[in-house]
Design brief:
Cathepsin D, subunit A, domain 1; single chain; 435 residues; 4% helix; 2 domains; globular; mainly beta
Length: 435
């Protein structure tokens, strides 16, 4: 039994980790690769679902979207490294790369205080794993656009490092610290979700009561994590959405164009990530697009905060989101058979189903239908393919979450706005149209 983890989650930082299990026999071979046409412009870059750093030995990675990201020393375009196979994640915020990939750049740390100098470190958990590492300042190049002096996380991947993860981070990460390309399935994560900051007001105030500690202050030259203490971090020093840090007009959101993927999948799927919204011919929302708004009323609709609503099979899932960092469609449906020993669904035949997606704060309004398929995951993952349009499974625990993962994006151009970048008084939104 092979297991694959992919990271991601809702725009509100409520990250979701998913798992795949299949035969691992690759018995059905490869289907053709699929791709959209790509022409280089000033505001785009190629992305691709393909096999990458092997998180698991016997089966290809599945539904993981990769891009190449260039990281430079701040203000010095002569000192840069290009990092391939960085996972594109619309469900989290911030660039996080393996520290070893940028070690030669000697990036300056994010400094919280002087005398003695205190540097920011971060714990960033997903459902069944998490990241630990120092924060640093870098210039981040996406295609032909550069985000300058952005706070990023350097994932600590040196097993002999002096400052290893704290016990609190270890527990928050479900005792599974992802500290290598092999465990992460990538060389880093490019979080381009719906907000500018990866934490926000709670971390500004250092309010970690009842939850994990996200930011720590560690003395420069610390020899163990015992010297690190929970820290409040000002907004301007928190890990920042690289897209939001790009120059205008490319900083208010993204468009993702991906080709359609049929059953039983494709060898790979190549698409395009376009920077900015409604500022150029390639990022203007078409008149036939469907649009829904993410919730922003945390007081009255906490489950829908920075999420949309999904109505499926008589159930309303208030915490729903579009997430390239989740490698399947994940929701609870007790009527669907699961693969043996797995949370993935294994219906005998491919099912054609539909759901209604609506605004987060007004779930009974603006309901739009979304048709999708549920395939037999055991059969899908028995192939050598890496892109699957009908991979679906149950959430780890029954609840109000419906994750529209990577399969949602196939065959569509999807527009994702960043809150307060697209208008201070306008809630962030999703929009999509067929290719």
């Amino acid at each position: 039994m092979a297991v694959l983890a992919a990271c991601g989650g809702g725009g509100g930082g409520d990250s979701t980790t998913t798992t795949i299990s299949g035969s691992g026999l690759n018995s059905l071979g490869l289907s053709p690769a699929v791709a959209t046409a790509f022409v280089q412009t000033v505001n785009n870059l190629p992305v691709k679902v393909e096999d990458g750093p092997r998180a698991f030995q016997f089966t290809p990675n599945a539904n993981i979207l990769y891009a190449t990201v260039t990281v430079c020393a701040p203000g010095d375009a002569s000192r840069c490294v290009s990092i391939d196979h960085v996972q594109v994640d619309t469900g989290s915020v911030g660039l996080r790369v393996l520290a070893s990939k940028v070690k030669a750049l000697n990036l300056p740390p994010v400094t919280l205080a002087q005398g003695p100098t205190q540097n920011a470190w971060e714990c960033f958990p997903f459902v069944i794993g998490g990241l630990w590492g120092a924060n640093a300042v870098a210039d981040v190049v996406l295609g032909q656009q550069t985000a300058t002096a952005v706070a990023v996380q350097l994932i600590e991947d040196d097993p002999n490092a002096a400052v290893r993860y704290t016990s609190d981070c270890y527990n928050a990460a479900d005792r599974n610290i992802l500290d290598s390309a092999a465990t992460l399935g990538s060389n880093g994560i490019l979080g381009i979700g719906s907000t500018t900051l990866d934490c926000g007001l709670n971390c500004v105030a250092g309010n970690y009561s009842g939850t994990f500690v996200q930011y720590y202050s560690c003395p420069q030259g610390a020899t163990s994590s015992a010297a690190c203490t929970p820290a409040a971090v000002p907004a301007n020093l928190q890990v920042y959405n690289p897209v939001a840090a790009l120059p205008a007009p490319y900083n208010n959101g993204v468009v993702l164009k991906m080709p359609a993927v049929g059953d039983p999948g494709a060898a790979s799927a190549s698409g395009e990530l376009i920077l900015g919204l409604n500022s150029a011919a390639n990022n203007t929302v078409p008149s036939n697009a469907t649009k829904v708004y993410l919730g922003v009323d945390y007081v009255n609709h906490p489950n829908a905060y920075l999420n949309v609503s999904t109505q499926y099979n008589g159930t309303t899932f208030a915490g729903s989101y579009l997430d390239t960092g989740t490698n399947g469609l994940f929701f609870t449906d007790a009527t669907l058979p699961r693969c043996q020993g797995s949370t993935w669904y294994c219906p005998k035949n491919t099912l054609n189903v539909s759901a209604l997606v609506s605004d987060g704060d007004n779930p009974t309004q603006n309901r739009v239908p979304v048709a999708f398929q549920i395939g037999n995951a055991e059969g899908l993952f028995a192939t050598s393919n890496t892109a699957f349009g009908d991979a679906a499974g149950a959430t780890p625990t029954a609840g109000s979450s419906f994750a529209w993962g990577m399969p949602f994006f196939y065959g569509r151009q999807v527009y994702l706005a960043i809150w307060q970048q697209a208008g201070a008084l306008t809630a962030p939104w999703y929009a999509w149209a067929p290719l």
